[in-house]
């Protein structure tokens, strides 16, 4: 049987040797890979299938086994360690056999889009009801993705979001979404710096921060190991700066999220498959190899990975010659425990003790000891400082300007321990600025979340300005939505008046446009008692004004007094 074009792309004949892997040899101690044996034997090999978890069951659809493309649905019970082939997949709505498709679970239905059927790339769209056991063709309107395979799909709210893939000729980096409520496809209007076009990347969603992470893949010329993050609330992409040793370039690998960590396994570059398990700590931004207490599964790509009950399970895959039907389990709960926490605590103590320090920072007249090797390893800003050839590179004492002593200590504590210290909203504003200056994105996000929980009509405009200045898009969106909800009160604050300046004019205009999408100034004056809501209710929705809130008509008069209604109207 002809190999999937995705497989062929992952092993070009002139592919260079892969770079160093983050793999660690098996040790005597530590978590172990455990083979999972199913009652009745193996369910058979699968390459580039899809997998979702619902309850204690894993639903695996499609893939191929070296001779046949499949469209059956395997149901693996993790409680009984048994498997069945769903007997109700023969209806008119079932997908044709395929691999390299994408599938997600949303609202009790398994949605399947696209893939490759050995002859062509597909753009059909089907769903399977887990309760009804019936397939159906999704009659979607709008602008669906073009035919493709090797794409990724994730869920956010009521939307299925598709990214990337290829069609044998073209590689994509577009982002499209299907809303199950409207049954409509639409392109996602993204901002920021998006990943380049690619197929067979890994994707993982960190629900606590509403973030989609895309790692690696293949762009038609080479395998990749770059990492990008999309804020699913604002649709803004950004490259993620990390430290440590990342996985080498690859495609056809998998990634899962557990807690605040992303785990990647396997993949392939050229003719070399991998079996390394790597971990990215989203709090510290550090990649590290995960050392096992037992041999790892055979190297492979095009497998599936899921998380259930604190364990990572991998199934199937391909190494260039063999098609796998095995399943392995790894305990994520046992991966990092007391030893890791103790190490973080020990490193944090070094900030206070100053023991073995080889550099000192002077901040607001106070001396802060530190260690070059650790700052070099953990922060790109300090790497550049120590290798720049300027005076700071050789100096033992470096003067720091524009950052408070407390905020600088917060940055150092984070770089040493990988965890933010407790802070209030006022301190978090200073930390937001410092973390932005030093490029410590996880700390910046932590500070932004604290600030976002402390929004009031009195500080919202100042927070919006800070979020814009310090490149915190999620906080900016949150502050904008808050201002729209409480516009009549916010517009009369001193902080809002500060926005009325030439320097802040673009930000002010963007805010007024956002207000205008909910209710116009004329509408504000005419709708005393109601405030339009953006970012929390469907378009056209309203929220009742608090009894103590000022009249929207007063807000319009205040805009006139500030002289800014004409600015918005002129634009």
UniProtKB/TrEMBL annotation:
| A Pfam family annotated for this UniProt entry | Kelch_1
SUPFAM superfamilies, per database record: Kelch motif (SSF117281), POZ domain (SSF54695)
CDD domains reported for this sequence: BACK, BTB_POZ_ZBTB_KLHL-like
State the GO CC annotations. Golgi apparatus
Q: Which InterPro entries match?
A: BTB/POZ_dom (IPR000210), Kelch-typ_b-propeller (IPR015915), Kelch_1 (IPR006652), LZTR1/Attractin (IPR051568), SKP1/BTB/POZ_sf (IPR011333)
Q: Where is this region: Disordered?
A: 1-25
What keywords are annotated for this sequence in UniProt? Kelch repeat, Repeat
User: Ranges for the BTB domain?
Assistant: 357-419
The cross-references to PANTHER family, in alphabetical order and at most eight, read: LEUCINE-ZIPPER-LIKE TRANSCRIPTIONAL REGULATOR 1 (PTHR46376:SF1)
Name of the featured protein: BTB domain-containing protein
**What is the protein's species of origin?**
Emiliania huxleyi (strain CCMP1516)
